[in-house]
Amino acid sequence: MDVLLQRWEPVVSNSFPRMIEFWIRIHGITLHYWSLETLEAIAKELGPMSDTDVDRGRIRILIDGLRKLEMRLPIELPSGEVISVDLEYEKLEKHCFMNQ
User: Fold this and answer.
1) Cα separation values, 17 from 3, 13, 24, 87, 95, Å
2) Which superkingdom, per the lineage (predicted)?
3) pLDDT tens per residue across span 2-55
């Protein structure tokens, strides 16, 4: 039996499914800015939004799986104050074990 060895290279095929949809729970928004508009503004920074859950502070976003995940995001509130919010990707462990 012949064996062919080839050096592995970290190249991902263009046909690899790279877009993954996540529910992302937002932590750190003060109560008086807890609104659909705030969640939409955060979503705009992350990727295409397909759904929201304002009561639970969640957005459903299509994420490019080949890019580094944002775990913390600075946002500007309508008051002009800039705060950082933490992003919790629900069921992340099904897709990645590096960012947990």
Assistant:
1) 30, 9, 20, 23, 12
2) Eukaryota
3) 666 666 666 666 666 678 899 999 999 988 888 999 999 899 999 999 999 999
Contact call for residues 54 and 29 (beta carbons, < 8 A): no
Residue with tokens 């995940």: 69
100 band by pLDDT with thresholds 50, 70 and 90:
very low
* β pairing state of 19-27 and 58-64: antiparallel
Q: The pTM is what?
A: 0.75
DSSP element (H, E) containing 72: strand 72-76
Burial of 62 (0-12, 13-18, 19+ CB in 10 A): middle
Closest to 19 in 3D by CA, of 53, 52, 50, 58: 50
Tokens encoding 20? 């993954």
